[in-house]
Target: TIGR01777 family protein
Amino acid sequence: MNVLITGGTGLVGTRLSGVLTEAGHRVAHVSRTLAPGSPCRTFQWDPAAGTIDPAAVPFADAVVNLAGANVGEGQWTAARKQELLASRVDGLALLRRELAKPGHRVRTVVSASAIGLYGNTGDALVTEDTLPVGHDLLADLTQAWEQAAVPLAALGLRVVVPRIGVVLSLAGGALPALAGPVKLGFGAPLGSGQQWLSWIHIDDLCRLLLAMLTDDIWQGAYNAVAPNPATNAAFTTALAEVLHRPLLLPNIPAFILQLAMGEQSEMVLTGKRVSAAKVLAQGFAFEFPGLREALQALYATAPQPAKSLVYGAESARSE
Ligand SMILES: NC(=O)c1ccc[n+]([C@@H]2O[C@H](COP(=O)([O-])OP(=O)(O)OC[C@H]3O[C@@H](n4cnc5c(N)ncnc54)[C@H](OP(=O)(O)O)[C@@H]3O)[C@@H](O)[C@H]2O)c1
Model:
């Protein structure tokens, strides 16, 4: 099938494009910029201005909507908060406008959401039916994002909304940021360390998105998280073990993180303990259900600087 991905240039979209292509699908991106040398066909859009290449939607049998300004980048100023929201709801409004027009074949839209919807869950394991328990910035943002996807279903499309957990990848996102201090020997749990972190290996996420695209049994909201969330302390410990580094420092107090990060400290100090029961009940099999295995698999594929230097020296000598 032909799959159109908005935000396809990002962390998830790049990997998903590879997974879809390997599975025999044709992929095109919808991007704000036409980058030279892009590995796949790209249609330009400007969600803020409400413009999109008119050939974009007619290309597709299905759409994956991943576009949105990155919540982990930049300070949460009033202008940035507005951008976080507008970059999501404007894109969906534009897609809805194009999908309402006749003359296209799209039947399925997979529109990203996030477990930020649930706010701070404490130790309670939340399911897709749990009402948002908090009204922090991410919960409010995600509610508005999901609401903006509702009109797509009214067009008669099959709409699937994966509520994505913390994506584990070495290419970006939270993991490199969490691993940096651990690698340097400064790793420590954050705040109480008891806040839950519901994660998913990027390859499992992309296989889940592929299943959602290709199998009609998927409809509505699903938590896109692995079945074994970890507390921040357990996550930090597992990361240190996989990286073969000691954890010597005490927890970093919450007030220091609040001083350093401001409102954004909610991203690391609030926890989300999120259930994967619904995707498991649909028959999805995780390749990486356990944290340690997921981290080991990721770091096993990481380049080894010391060895490559040695290999480089050897190959230089033999040439
Ligand atoms: N990574 C995670 O841990 C995680 C967790 C939960 C939810 N999610 C959500 O899943 C989606 C994909 O995640 P990701 O990690 O791949 O995100 P990402 O790397 O930040 O990529 C998102 C893409 O959105 C587009 N974008 C950025 N700013 C924009 C703006 N102001 N207006 C319109 N488009 C903009 C960009 O594409 P162009 O520059 O090509 O336009 C960018 O490549 C995001 O919506 C994210 O919020 C991610």
User: Anything to note?
Assistant: The first strand starts at residue 2 and ends at 6. The CA atoms of residues 160 and 220 lie 5 Å apart. DSSP finds twelve helices and 13 strands in the chain. Confidence is low (pLDDT under 50) at residues 306-319.
